[in-house]
Write a structure and sequence with these properties.
Length: 201
Amino acid sequence: MKNKQLLVINLLRSLWPSFGEEVFYLRERLRHRRQFGDVQKNFWLDHYAPLKPVVLSGAFAGMKYLLGNVLGTALPRWLGTYEAELHGIIRDRISKKKYDLILVVGSAEGYYACGFARLFPDTPVLSFEATAFSRWQQRRLIKLNQIRNIRVQGLLKAAEFVRLVKNKRVLCLLDIEGGEFEFCSAATAPFLGNEPIVTGK
């Protein structure tokens, strides 16, 4: 029986490369639902119902948001306190510049991708996310906010990353669980300039 299960799992992995990640993140979502679901639902009932949640403060205030589960609880996104340490950088530095392209690599359900697309409505945003469920959530978030300047894609390879950033003013946010080193190697460094790359989701 165990051999048959392994055979099925290996077959799924060969047909669906992100299968392992999909299962892991599904388990994480279920865990977060058990842990935070009631608190999140009660907050929505007290502050938003019957409307969809809206980000209340921070860099992306006013952005409509998903009601269901994301990775972790959605509450910090709704409140606008999610990764608050980045708000000053986004407000005081990033939002005052002009970019040819915005890349969000490891974009999950799209908090940053959609947030930046709203901040820079005339700048194309490429959003890369390996897992299919997160891409589906992100498309829902894009539709909810009627965003037109964003394109959601799957896995980004380092060689394609170099092609995208070369000779352009690019805002790049990387959050790929340790894979950042591949994207910020000696081969890509000449194209990245001196500005820091902000990591987060």
